[in-house]
Design goal:
mainly beta, six-stranded antiparallel beta sheet, about 10% helix, about 40% strand, globular
Length: about 375
């Protein structure tokens, strides 16, 4: 009996001590605020942007703090200097008329910050040429077959890319994409048709340096499942292709590996990913991010196919709240989604997005929409 009591007390102690969890935040070099540089200049006649912010200590969840009031310039190997203008907090833009990158030129970023009067610069970066994208195409995927004749099939697609460089100058590739799709509300409301555009949030890179020919085939640029409404009406993807030098490729590769890991105390941390920007005022001051210099080619592709079993969030269960018959007034806080006069009644919802597509997208049709 005495041994039994001792065991119970021991188990109770272990349960109580095991349930007391104290958050542990290790002290690392990431505890101080570091300059974060995000920027890309290309050979296209567009505005280039350099974003400057401060990193946050480990464990802080708030968004990064923009670094404002900096003097930001870009110089080239011909002795030209171009000033950037701060348009929104922490974002510095080039003049699209005065500045346009050129392949074969070397570019250096210069930053003078107001805090601690620190001065930063990048290493000179060569703008390497990039080939055109050969083709973008897709293959339809069926996740579930409607074998019983009642249940619809569920379909999606994988988007692929082919490219090659006959000159073998471009050995390292990076891709970004912007996707746009049209969607309709299933109700006769004024704002029935809208468009949504999203930018890629994954790292797409490829190394062809080990190949005899710089050639990329069937690169899976984007996967589209049936659990969104992207493929319900009409879909388009614009792919931008960039040339990288080996150092920048290794930078993106480390970030890609870091993003694919679950994350833990001994995983790669951002300070391990070497930046090409350094502090002239203090050699011990670390910098995060990268100043990218790359030629750019691009191609747009529309998916013309029709797909089965595509999700819609505008179901009767999700949208319809109630029906007002005859002269019964619709509540002021509701939106009418069905208006019939014979017999007279209004079907309404308390969810604005069910009656107004601009909650998710825009009514302005894109200029490239066919």
């Amino acid at each position: 009996m005495k041994k039994f009591t001792q065991n119970v007390l021991l188990i109770s102690f272990l349960i109580l001590t095991g349930s007391c969890i104290t958050k542990f935040t290790p002290r690392t070099s990431e505890d101080k605020e570091l300059l974060v540089v995000e920027g890309l200049i290309t050979d296209q006649p567009v505005t280039n942007r350099i974003k400057l912010s401060r990193s946050l200590p480990l464990g802080v969840r708030n968004s990064a703090v923009p670094v404002t009031g900096c003097i930001v310039t870009i110089s080239d190997d011909l002795g030209n200097t171009f000033n950037l203008k701060e348009t929104v907090s922490g974002t510095y833009n080039t003049d699209s008329v005065r500045f346009r990158g050129a392949t074969g030129r070397f570019y250096t970023l210069h930053i003078n910050t107001p805090f601690n009067n620190l001065v930063y610069a990048s290493y000179p970066m060569e703008m390497k040429p990039v080939p055109e994208i050969d083709s973008i195409y897709y293959e339809k995927l069926t996740f579930q077959f409607g074998s019983d004749g009642v249940t619809p099939s569920q379909e999606g697609c994988q988007v692929y890319l082919n490219t090659h460089d006959p000159t073998n100058q471009c050995k390292f590739f990076r891709w970004e994409y912007s996707e746009t799709w049209e969607f309709h509300l299933p109700y006769t409301v004024a704002n029935n048709t809208c468009w949504i555009s999203n930018s890629s949030d994954v790292i797409n890179i490829k190394n062809t340096s080990s190949l005899q020919e710089s050639k990329v085939e069937r690169y899976p640029i984007n996967f589209i499942s049936n659990i969104t409404d992207r493929l319900r009406v009409k879909y388009s993807i614009l792919v931008n292709q960039y040339s990288l030098n080996e150092d920048e490729y290794l930078y993106w590769e480390k970030l890609q590996n870091m993003s694919q890991q679950v994350g833990g105390l001994y995983d790669i941390i951002p300070s391990v990913v070497a930046s090409n920007v350094y502090c002239l005022s203090d050699p011990n001051e670390k910098v995060l991010g990268y100043f990218s210099v790359s030629a750019n080619s691009y191609k747009r592709f529309f998916i013309p196919g029709r797909f089965a079993g595509i999700l819609t969030q505008y179901t009767n269960e999700a949208c319809i709240a109630d029906t007002a018959f005859g002269g019964t007034p619709v509540p002021a806080s509701a939106w009418v989604i069905i208006n019939n006069f014979m017999p007279p009644y209004n079907v309404y919802t308390y969810i604005k997005g069910c009656a107004d597509c601009t909650v998710r997208g825009t009514k302005i049709e894109p200029s490239f929409w066919q």
